[in-house]
Design brief:
Strand 6 and strand 7 form a beta hairpin. 30% of the residues lie in helices and 27% in strands. The chain contains nine helices and 16 strands. The longest helix has 15 residues. The chain has a seven-stranded mixed sheet with strand order 8-5-4-3-2-1-16. The protein has a seven-stranded mixed sheet with strand order 9-10-11-12-13-14-15.
């Protein structure tokens, strides 16, 4: 597997993008920066999208990708929780905002088809084994474990502390997880169900105790305001735990 991180932050500028991940040319995860990162030609290859939750920074480009597919006669399959589907249909696909791309050009042949997923019900998609795994967040959220040919990664999506039992069950070769704020923002992070470096350290200590090892870890979803301090603190966490922890960046490629 070769993963490509299109967007790695909780913020957007000419340097930072909201989260999106390319698992392959046709399989993607979250739509924070799909169209803002991909060429017109590359977008045409995207057939399947795994959504973790309905927060704007994870679905921002869904309408645009769907609209581009609509105009090109292409189709996109979107896999998500029913609550995520309903939120998108109610708010993003509202006629007041945009087209209902799950019913256009016709209800029988829409540009976008939603498929319901359930936690821990594994399914096969584009040659990969996909397992949705619950995350602790302010809205219904899952992460995804993706496996192929004996290798696996697990993207936690947005998560607050206390989710380590699911991390243990995932037992991946690569853990992609969020750290949104630095540790001085701990109270806010807990209130809005995000992690700080200190909270991540606690989760990783529990994970190491349970598994007897730590997988490779890539940290993403950093709010750019706190980037420098988060990077400094994560470096200390990596040293303290003797762990392989990397800060993600836009365009980063990861080979498993």
């Amino acid at each position: 597997m070769e993963l490509r991180i299109l967007g790695a932050h909780q913020g957007e500028s000419d340097s930072y993008r909201f989260f999106s991940l390319m698992v392959s040319d046709s399989l993607t995860m979250d739509a924070g920066s799909l169209t803002s990162s991909l060429s017109w030609e590359a977008q045409a290859h995207v057939r399947s999208l795994l959504l973790t939750h309905a927060h704007f920074d994870h679905i921002k480009d869904l309408n645009v990708l769907g609209f581009n597919h609509f105009n090109r006669g292409l189709h996109l399959d979107v896999y998500c929780l029913p609550e995520v589907r309903d939120a998108i249909r109610t708010h993003m696909f509202s006629r007041d905002i945009w087209l209902d791309l799950s019913a256009r050009p016709t209800p029988g042949k829409p540009a976008i088809t939603f498929h319901n997923i359930e936690p821990y019900r594994t399914f096969t998609l584009e040659g990969y084994e996909i397992t949705p795994i619950p995350s602790i967040h302010t809205v219904p959220t899952v992460g995804y474990k993706v496996a192929k040919e004996g290798k696996s990664f697990y993207y936690t999506s947005d998560t607050g502390p206390g989710n380590v039992d699911h991390w243990v069950r995932a037992n991946p070769d690569l853990l992609l997880t969020e750290v949104t704020y630095d540790s001085s923002m701990d109270q806010l992070a807990v209130e809005v169900s995000h992690l700080t470096p200190s909270r991540l350290k606690t989760e990783l200590q529990a994970l190491k105790k349970a598994l007897g090892r730590l997988p490779r870890v890539v940290v993403l979803h950093i709010n750019p305001v706190y980037q420098e301090e988060v990077a400094r603190e994560i470096s200390l966490v990596a040293t303290d735990l003797d762990a392989d922890i990397t800060i993600a960046h836009e365009g980063m490629r990861i080979v498993l």
